[in-house]
Batch of 3 targets.
Target 1
Amino acid sequence: MEQPVRNAMTIDVEDYFQVSAFAPHISRDSWPQRECRVEANIDRILGILAAGQAQGTFFTLGWIAERYPAMVRRIVDAGHELASHGYGHLRASDQTREQFMDDISSSKKILEDIGGQAVLGYRAPSFSIGPGNLWALDVLQEAGYRYSSSIYPIAHDHYGMPDAPRFAFHPNGANGLLEVPITTVRIGQRNLPAGGGGYFRLLPYAVSRGLMRRVNQEDRQPAIFYCHPWELDPGQPRMQGVGLKTRFRHYVNLGRMEARVRALTRDFAWDRMDRIFLGQQ
């Protein structure tokens, strides 16, 4: 019997007030005073993955790890991969080369010191590596990372590199960093998102399931799914003064998310990014 394709379950570990769309409305100085809900939401996700016998990769902010080291250790103790989401959710495209090196190096050290395992992977906040800052991939390699999941091959108003390959590739040659894009499906002349985020909450679950199955069965490739802890938290505080589009994108179907992630663990086989793409044991 043919083994099912192993897909990559990935979690971007950040809290609701740290999302890029809220940045114009929430000052970083206010972060320490805000109600943090990430720990309870991560514990909920760990429970879902354990019940579904699924393992995954947790791209974690250094800012979060410093404040919740016991949570980070629970992630590692459950057998999941710990990876970096940078320190304070700054977009890679908003940093100089020197600032970016400092950001990714400090977060890597924080996570390794707390988690006690090598941190090999990085995901840029808001998928903010693209045509204008591909130098960031070289910096990641210099800092000791082996793969990135930061280029999203779609057209989007906040990010995206639609001409990038849809599946894992080496942008700077075979000896360079491995880039693993979020899953898309090619329909006509466009790549459509099929790996999580707001689309997963907005569209019926059967649509997302069908698109990921198409990638597994027709492309014979792993699907890369991502979500955030706050997406499973319909009780989070509502931000005031944000635009209608931002409000819709952030809050649509939060109450349905937990059941959908549970369904994913039943319908697909899931594993860590490092095992699937780097052959780590």
Target 2
Amino acid sequence: MVSDPQPAFVLIRPQMGENIGAAARAMWNFGLDRMRVIAPRDGWPNSRAVAMASGAGRLLDQAQLFDGTAAAIADCDFVYATTARPRGLTKPVFSPEAAMQDAHARIAAGGKVAVMFGPERAGMENDDIARANAIISVPVNPEFPSLNLAQCVLLLGYEWRRIVTEVTPMRVDALADWANQVEVEKLADHYQERLDQAGFFFPDHKAANMQMNLRNLWSRMPLTRADVQMLHGILRQMVRWKERG
């Protein structure tokens, strides 16, 4: 299992084993394995949780079970409560991203941190929220603020992963067999020749500008050699089809 410092995710009175299993799977997707479960409605261990967890079953095997919220967070220095409605309690309110940044800084300084998630049906009760040091408020649709337990766990797990792992905003497969300039040039020549034969570059006084725009189009496109071959093939087939007609 993961040994890196990380927050504990605390599930308060979860109602369905399937949701616990889905939460475990969501945690393990993002490298989190510190699950604490408070008074699960359907008992513990739970076969439905194990079935839903799929490859994250080891996480459930090591999950800590507690009777109440106070005991589950007793060893923590800072605790966040996830809720769509802060309910008027005077506490710092973080976005998910800012909360995980704050948690990471606290853990890096040697602190122990927990994130609490409420029951599926009604969310976290004020008594639980009152025990937290801060609130994580997810910017959901105010007309439909309820998040599934596993969805909320997934969201916080993702934000944590973004902080501890370098995420590349955009990449292209480095193994792609890119077309070189000569291949793209030949493709451009092929299309220009066939389009010219078809009378596409009309009227004459606009032909040069149209041809330049077409060349510019090819140069902007990141083409692989397979792309070039396919585009050649498309044009050849269209010409054959027209000649048969």
Target 3
Amino acid sequence: MRRGWERAVRVLARARGRHLRERRAGRRPVGLRLLTLLTCVVAGFMIVTSAIAGQGGDLRPDRTTDLVALVAEQAERNAALTQRLGELRADVDRLGRPSGADPELQPRSDAAAAAAGATPVQGPGVTVTLTDAPLDVQPAGVDEEYLVVHQQDIQAVANALWSGGAEAMTIQGQRVTARTGIKCVGNTVVLHGIPYAPPYVVTAIGDQARLEAALEASGPLATYRQYATMYRLGYAQQRVPSVSMPAYAGSVDGAYARARR
């Protein structure tokens, strides 16, 4: 065992000595030259492969474009699923309705369903559309947060319309009820679990003059309109002769609230 160890040490010593002599003579070791040549070949192969795959273009994906397309695609899919859920719920309600129901209770049941947004409605109304400032608007010293529409802006429109006697309301075409929550997630607004990008459209059915007066009297909306004037945020308001609104198609199960006993 000891003789084998000493032999290995002598071999390593001779190899190191040969390496030092070659360096003094100005020559590079054959192994090092071969390693350098191999590295160059591999690097060249990788460069050629990348050029062929890219075909002269940028191999980095346009993540912004992909994200916008993904949000739009998911919103369409969620809207289709929500519509299908509403159709199935209507079928369940129809099939589960007792044939011998008390006719005196039917008007009260219909009124409760209308108040809960469970039935489609139609009538004259007012529409408000909110949009972000154009991308080329970048005032010096102004935070970008002031150049986009936020959930509180949409909520301010909804609150003003309710105070103006709105009988029914939709946001982005979805029926608004007492259970509706508006949430900001990044650069999108989520309504009933579906993300939406601007423009944001809020429509209410009711007395048009009262609805317009309520919008004009709203303090939060007066502030928003000032920013719209300064930074080109979008605010458009118009009367609509006739609006058709679908029934609320979301979940009606309470996740947190419980009746007291």
